[in-house]
Structures are given as C-alpha cells and as structure tokens.
Amino acid sequence: MSTPVTVTVTGAAGQIGYALLFRIASGQLLGSDTPVKLNLLEIPQAVKAAEGTAMELSDGAFPLLAGVEIFDDATKAFDGVNVALLVGARPRTKGMERGDLLEANGGIFAPQGKAINAGAADDVKVLVVGNPANTNALIAQSAAPDVPAERFTAMTRLDHNRALAQLSQKLGVPVSEIKKLTIWGNHSATQYPDLFHAEVGGKIAAEQVEESWLKDTFIPTVAKRGAAIIEARGASSAASAASAAIDHVYTWVNGTAEGDWTSMAVPSDGSYGVAEGIISSFPVTTKGGKYEIVQGLEIDAFSREKIDASVAELVEEREAVKGLGLI
Ligand code: NAD
Ligand code: LMR
C-alpha cells in the first residue's frame, strides 16, 4: 500500500461535505489503490457536527481511510495537503444572486489560499466548489504566490454532467456515448454548454438536435439547473455536486480517455481570447496529473458571443474582488 494522500475538505459538516467524505474514504476520489488521510476544516460552531461525521467515517471501516482529523484552523488543516477541496462557503439561498456572494465569501478564500501557500505539499491540487467558485478560486490563488497558479481550479464538472444528462435524455443514448462536450466560462447562469464540438456516435451533437431545442431549452436548462434545484429542494444541489467534485479530481489525477475531454475551470492563458488570468471553464485533457486546454477548436459567431458574455461576467467579478482588496 502506498503512503496516504492527504485530502483536506473545507465545509466538511455541510451538505456537500456529507455526500463527499464517504466517497473519498471509499477510494472514489483517487482510485482503489490509494489510501487517504482526511483533514476536515470547519468553523468553530460546526466542529461538533464534523466530529459526528468523523465518527460515522470511522464506523464505515473503510480499508483505504488512514485517518481523520478535524480542524478549525486553516493553517493546520492544509499542512502537508495534496488535494484541497474548498467546499465551505455560504450557499446561495432563494432569490439571492451570485454577485451578492462575492463579498460574503471573499473573506474565506484569501486566508485559505495563504494557508495552502504556507503548508501544502509540492504536488498540491486545489478544487474550489464553494460559490462563486471561479472567483473564489482566483482569490485563493492570488493569496498563494508560491504555488503554481495552474493548481487552482474551480468546478464546472457539475454543469458538464448536467449537460451530458440533458443530451443523453434528448437523444436516448447513454451518457457514455457522448464525447467532447464543453462548458465554457463561469459556473453561473452565463455559462455556455457547447454542443458544436460534442460528438455522439462520432457525429457532431448540435447537428442531431433541433436548433430551437439547443438554444431555447438545452442551454438555459443546463445553465439554470442550480437555481431549479434550489427552487425544488429548498437547498442547493449537494449529492450531485459532491459527485462532480469526485469526477473532477479523479479525472485530473487519472487522465481523460483517448478521444475525449472534460470541462474544468482553470486559469486562462489567453486561449480562445479568454482574458488571461481569470479562472474560466475550458475543454481540457488530463494526463499524468496535469491538464492541458484543448487547442485549435473553431468557434463560430454564436459560440463566440456566448463565451464572451460569460468571460465578461468573470472579468467583472475579478474587478469587484479587486475593488474589495481581495486580490
Ligand atoms: P452548507 O451550508 O451545507 O455547508 C457549508 C459548510 O461550510 C458549513 O458547514 C459551514 O460551517 C462551512 N464553512 C463556512 N465557512 C467556512 C470556513 N471559513 N472554513 C471552513 N468551513 C466553512 O453548503 P453546501 O450545500 O455544502 O454548499 C457549499 C458550497 O458549494 C456553497 O457555496 C454552494 O453554493 C456551492 N456549490 C457549488 C457547486 C458547483 O457546481 N461549483 C454546486 C453546488 C453547490
Ligand atoms: C449549483 O449549480 O447547483 C449551485 O452552484 C447552485 C448554487 O448557487 O449554490
């Protein structure tokens, strides 16, 4: 058995945390040969609840679980961390817009970025789930100048999975037959789920659906799914979000399949005219624990407009957090 990988989960006592931790302990985050040590970070008021979850993790008798520790101090929780899952944040509630969250959450991610900078392992990989995820990732990254910027990523895999599900239902094909789907931009209602490069049975997906369905049903359904879940459940998505976090890290560590790619929000290098430095979703391939933005895709006028709108929102969010002194 190899040395345990240290995985720190923030917001461990929250609803995503509850759905996530047991799957990490069972080996689904990193693979069935990799033991994990879990560091749970919570605010002091929620430490007791995290202790309860830790008791349940122990009762799961997971062969791969090498230990669980609970912290209310970020510096300690991120000491030696290999995989950091930044989930803890204030969830959006009914009627609240994402912009309102910037100020509320900004203060959480700078100290956590600093703690990662101070103590993380050299190979640290960071996934930000807590909303507004892309800009929270930017805040954490800015506070961690000694960690390579590309290690800070944000989650659009839930949007990617939602798009796979909608298309699979529309065409009556299993999700496994859909390849090269892309979410571009922000994890918000401006995101752009792109079917013009996606393939089903080797043919372009956009050509297999009506244009009106693509534009008036598919895109808004995927982009507003988070709000629809809040409306229906009275709370934001949790198990599907945890599942997507597992997928994001598993793919980052273990690689994308030949002839396919996934969606990850990563620091832009300017590819596809996306403003450099913002953390925006792209099509990426992964191999050997590293990801690369897929290059050379042709972007038509419709897609260009959609990508630009979401990028403009991210640039605005960056300006807002700059104004608040958070980056
Ligand atoms: P939740 O309220 O159930 O849990 C959040 C937890 O974070 C709480 O236990 C809280 O005590 C903790 N927390 C708050 N501040 C913290 C800090 N500074 N350090 C450590 N822990 C802290 O919320 P949830 O449903 O688990 O959602 C968590 C976040 O994930 C929200 O921001 C939500 O909007 C977001 N989310 C993102 C996606 C995505 O696709 N990117 C999907 C669903 C939800
Ligand atoms: C989701 O996509 O389900 C969440 O990001 C919604 C939210 O705002 O918490």
From TrEMBL:
Binding residues annotated for substrate, in chain numbering = R92, R98, N131, R162
Q: Which PROSITE patterns match?
A: MDH (PS00068)
Residues forming the catalytic site: H187
Please provide an example of a Pfam family that matches this protein in its UniProt record. Ldh_1_C
What keywords would UniProt list here? NAD, Oxidoreductase, Tricarboxylic acid cycle
The answer to whether UniProt assigns keyword NAD to this entry is: yes
InterPro entries from the UniProt entry: L-lactate/malate_DH, Lactate/malate_DH_C, Lactate/malate_DH_N, Lactate_DH/Glyco_Ohase_4_C, Malate_DH_AS, Malate_DH_type2, NAD(P)-bd_dom_sf
Q: Where does NAD(+) bind?
A: G11, A12, A13, G14, Q15, I16, G17, N105, Q112, V129, G130, N131
Task: Please give the catalytic activity noted in the UniProt record.
Answer: (S)-malate + NAD(+) = oxaloacetate + NADH + H(+)
Lactate/malate dehydrogenase C-terminal domain mapped to chain residues: 156-321
A molecular-function term among this protein's GO annotations: L-malate dehydrogenase (NAD+) activity
Q: Tell whether Oxidoreductase is among the UniProt keywords.
A: yes
Write out the GO biological process terms.
malate metabolic process; tricarboxylic acid cycle
Outline the extent of the Lactate/malate dehydrogenase N-terminal domain: 6-145
User: Might you give the EC number(s) for this enzyme?
Assistant: 1.1.1.37
Q: What family, per the record? A: Belongs to the LDH/MDH superfamily. MDH type 2 family.
Protein purpose = Catalyzes the reversible oxidation of malate to oxaloacetate.
Q: What is this protein called?
A: Malate dehydrogenase
Q: Which organism is it from?
A: Pseudonocardia oroxyli
Gene that encodes the chain:
mdh
